[in-house]
Specification:
alpha+beta; Alpha-Beta Plaits; 2 domains; three-stranded mixed sheet; three-stranded antiparallel sheet; about 30% helix; about 25% strand
Length: about 150
């Protein structure tokens, strides 16, 4: 950036990231603030699901892979659910979606993230490492202990 380069303003940055704002709207992300600070566009919002959040981030990377002039603070709505669940007597089956971790799945089903090892142990036949799960895997979710 040269000495006489013009600093971007809110409208210029909104124009650059217009497709991101459009995807956020399409994905029903509630933007709480869109401001310029220190020559950066700051987006803060709540996505209805992890999938919606990921789609916004995918679009950000399309517009500018380095996104040096953007900071996005996107969270997923509490209680948002993105996967597919089937239930039976022995527990439930959950299909892993992009962005999932065993801790996040544990939080959804048991209300605490640190119960992820129960899910890992129940799926030892297909999981070798609790930090490595793949999209599309069908995991057995043991019933919650009472």
């Amino acid at each position: 950036m040269g000495l006489f380069d013009k600093k971007p303003n809110l409208e210029e940055l909104k124009q650059k990231y217009q497709s991101v704002l459009r995807v956020a709207e399409q994905q029903q992300v509630r933007l709480q603030s869109v401001v310029v600070q220190n020559n950066k566009l700051f987006l803060k919002g709540v996505a209805p699901s992890q999938e919606a959040k990921n789609k916004v981030w995918d679009q950000i990377k399309v517009v500018d892979p380095a996104y040096n002039d953007l900071t996005a603070d996107l969270t997923v709505e509490a209680g948002a659910f993105t996967g597919t669940v089937q239930s039976d007597q022995a527990g439930q089956t959950y299909t892993v979606k992009r962005g999932d971790t065993l801790s996040a799945i544990s939080l959804r089903f048991y209300g605490k993230a640190n119960a992820y090892m129960r899910i890992f142990e129940a799926n030892r036949d297909q999981l070798k490492d609790p930090d490595k799960i793949e999209v599309g895997q069908k995991l057995v979710i043991p019933p919650a202990k009472t």
